[in-house]
Amino acid sequence: MRINSGLTQKQIAEKLGKKQQTIASWESGQSQPDANTLFAFCSLCGTTVDIAFSFTQQKTPPPRQNRK
Question: Using the 8-state DSSP alphabet, how is residue 45 labeled?
């Protein structure tokens, strides 16, 4: 996502108030951002967590009514 958005690790780090090494460790799978940081990161990359992780909202069918 970061690369596709045209941002460097350093730019992301500065905008999120993190160290560049932290961003690198996320990208290498050595660590993960906390939830709030993940939302901010996605926003910087011009997307949402739902889109980034391919979450879709499943519609619950309406309750069935008993008909007599």
Answer: T
